Amino acid sequence: MLAWTVYLSFASALVLMLLPKGRVDLARGVGLGGALAGAVVAFAGSMMKQPGIQEICRIPWIPSLGINFHFAADGISVTLVMLTGIAAVVGVLFSWNIGERVKEFFAFYMVLIGGVYGVFLSFDLFLLFVFYEIAIIPKYFLIAIWGSTNREYGAMKLALYSFVGSAMVLVGLIAAYVVSGGTTTNLIELAQFGFSKEFQYWVFPLVFVGFAILAGLWPFHTWAPTGHVAAPTAVSMLLAGVVMKLGAYGALRVAITLFPLGAQAWQTEIGFLACVGIVYGALVALVQRDFKFVIGYSSVSHMGFVLLGLATLNEIGLSGAVLQMFSHGVIAGLLFAVVGRMVYDRTHTRELAVLHRFNLSRSLPFVALTFVVASAASMGLPGFSGFVAELQVFIGAWRAFPVFAIFSGVGLLVGVAYTLRALQKAFFADPELETETRGPVLDPISMPEKCGAMILMAATLIIGLYPRLLLDLIVPSFSSPLFDGLRNGAGL
Amino acid sequence: MSYAFPWFVLFLPLFAAVGIVLFTLKNRNVSATISIAAIVGGFFLTLLFLVNHGWTPGRNEVNWLWMVVGDLRIEFGLRLDPLSLLMLLVVTGVGGAIHIYSRGYMHDDPNAGRYFASLSLFTFSMLGVVLSTNFVQMFIFWELVGVSSYLLIGFWYARPSAADACKKAFLTNRLGDFGFLWGILMVWGALGSVNFVELEATLKANPVALGSLATAAGLLVFCGALGKSAQFPLHVWLPDAMEGPTPVSALIHAATMVAAGVYMLCRVFFIFNGPALEVIAWIGGFTALIAALMATRQDDIKRILAYSTLSQLGYMVMAVGLQGTVPAMYHLTTHAAFKAMLFLGAGSVIHAMHHEQNIWKMGGLRERMPITYRTFLLGTLALCGVPPFSGFFSKDEVLTQAFEHNPVLFAIATLVAMLTTFYMFRLVFVAFRGGHRADAASHAHESPGVMTWPLMFLAIPTVFAGFWGIETLLAHQFGGAAVHASGSMLDHLFSPFNHAPASAFLGLGAVGIGFLLAQRLYANAETDPLPEKLGWVSEFVRDRFYLDELYAILIRITHDALAQVSDALDRWVVSGFLVKGTHGSVELLGRGLRLLQTGSLQTYALMFAVGVAALLYFLLGGAQ
Predict the structure, then answer these.
(1) What is the pTM of this model?
(2) Which of A153, A280, A297, A394 has the highest number of chain B CBs within 10 A, making it the mutation to test binding with B?
(3) Which of the listed residues A188, A289, B26, B408 has the most CB atoms within 10 Å of its CB?
(4) Which residue of chain A comes nearest to B71, CA vs CA?
(5) Is B355 left (phi over 0), alpha (psi -120 to 50) or beta?
(6) Per residue in B531-540, pLDDT tens?
């Protein structure tokens, strides 16, 4: 059933391309319909998921090479599929005001979504890689055509980084395929093959870093802030919300499960880079003048927690990392929605120093409230999903490497500082204006925006209050045969 | 059935907060009523529960699995024992009075709806801290307390001073919480549980279970109290937090939030080992001393009370450090009542003076505001530790504890008792006695009943709480014999003198000296005579030993430096050198290669020949 998320997304992209020109409303409708249908399938399928790894479909594709069109899902995939469903719907809602080339926009958008669903559901390495590439291409066009600041530069940088990462992954995967005898690309079978320690030692960093580039691993993160800033709002939301998760997911699903011994060997290095990313992203966010850059760097910092969680290689840290993927997807989406769509599309500036002129807390109270909630969630306050996720990563990290755990906590502290700074500068500054004059008149917040913001706020709050909704899906995944290697080697 | 009561007590304020935000934010009166009903309802439910089950209910812990990952189990539950039930009464009782008072105080504020929503959210968080069964749950509510206090301190966010104050409070608290979290992780890592009961059992069975981490873990956990209870060096946020509305100061910065730190120390007292307790005691004593010194030179009525709170919290922390959980909790309870009353009294004065807070612009308020004056005086007497008011008994227990364990700290504590009397009577003489120093003072009038009734209600525990046997109850919790287990009221009154006469008499002597000094200097003073007499020392004390400035500089230097370095690194090294460098070298390579792409067939042919020759050379050379 979950496979229909992929098919429906691609089908709606196809329909969108065939639509007659100028039917703007129809294009939006089809986009929303496709995203909604995908989300409904994602949630329904997740509810009905059986324990363990659930087979979805397995059709021989290139039999001579042992490649299958193989979809399956475990708790990790299901969590991220649900995240994609939420992000897709909300992204469409926040793209409602896209005016030029509407149907092309939504067509690319749905291809991207379909590719993302595909990555999360593929249990065949080759298939996974194909979807991974499918997801990269539309990103380029979406940014280069509909983007804003410095869009060609941002799009090209993102595309180049992605392709370099993909190339590294591809080399590693081909090597693994050949070494394992060249008979299968099935993820589970490869995970149980048991590559030699020497082989894992050099292949793991290649594949892990190749994927982690897309997750914003320091020092390969620079595509992220520029890409986020250049992208149109919905695409920044998707970039931070799900595309960065593709990288983290690949790093977990492929690099760690196939090469557990390599992961152990490189654990400290990865943990170190993740920590640097956490603290560094937070510090850089603290001095940004552009509102969107603040959020962009905060993404680097929060994704650092995902990578740190992965580096712990223990159950608590890994499940924390997956939960953080979900949590950051929702929270970053919300932050970008506020900054890019709700604020920028009305004020046409993102300079923190200029924004106070608009007296936003009075003129757009709903936006101010949304951003307060998003900030609270982003700071990792209890009651929001970020708290549970980051707490788990901490605890996991404490077990694996206490020094890094303490170090990364500094990032959390700075996180409070930069969030409060941005919040105050953008929304609550300038008391003289506060009392007397109202700022320039801004368009009121539209219905799609309200719905989108509500969905995201509800998601982070529900998971924050009762994390077992997701954890009970995620945690059992680590007892599947995929993680045999890790369990045997590292005592997961 | 009535085992459900504590759940209602906990969640009613949350429902009130959510309800106000969703439906009645614009309606001040309805919002106030909802908020008041929630907390007062909680107070009566607690009383009912106590009537039904007594202080030690049969089912004293209820848990509900919140999350489980591997060997990490985190529950959400309620702990019901004398300690938490007593705190429940303090929070809902004192808090209830403050809620009612707020209705009058915030009457004219257009955003009163938001105020009451935040107040209810705070109450919920505080009750959560009190009822927690484990470290993680406590930490969650601990953070929520921080958030709601941020909202309340910054209630008038349009004032830059309030905006700065709430940020400062939040960040300082976060710093403490950071240590607290590490402490929790350390404890969990070593003992494998976060549940208080299980931890206590483990440590009882094996006192050295924490091993070499014991001191570090204890001190890190103490960091949490350092932030919330505003102990040196994290005390700086509390005086600034007076930017919030006065009832908030009474609720958060006198009775509840700042008490959370002390409560936590008592709750997890079994974790601390000797060296950790030693540090805790000294930090408490030091805070008590410097805060009392600073209080003597403040002119803002709320700031005097704020420093006094710091100083009294220092007492409590010191008592915990001297293994006196009973005196600490006892003093916490009585202090919550009388300090809240003092703050509310100050609020009543400020309200009457049209938001003038400088005591040198007041004067002669005794005749103008008789109820406020009388209750304020009662509070002052209790705070100074004059028998038979409640503060006398609790303070005496603290002093006795110090006397028995650490003579130096006892000397400090006695000195602080003297200073306390001095600055409190300075406040009373200058603000309430003498002549009117400003117009506002002569036009002041008594506050309405909605504000004076809570004052009078709080006067009851201020005067009588010493006779209610709170210490016996607490001694029961902490497994020790009650100190003053005696019969009649008169016996009780004199028991401190019978039990530990030296500390009681020395304490009283200090109070007497403080009072005489204050009377001599301020009984009819028009201006403050101290600056002339003390010179630069006075300024030094007034400016809080320049600690705030020192911190500001330190923070600015480190934070600016780190952020600028990171930014520069990102701009010049990572995206400049590495990214542009890669880009540049690729481009250079491209340009270099372009030189070869001449388009001339002859050149290509030549290069082809050279290539073939080179290839042949290597191949044949290799074959040789």
Answers:
(1) 0.83
(2) A280
(3) A188
(4) A316
(5) left
(6) 777 767 777 6
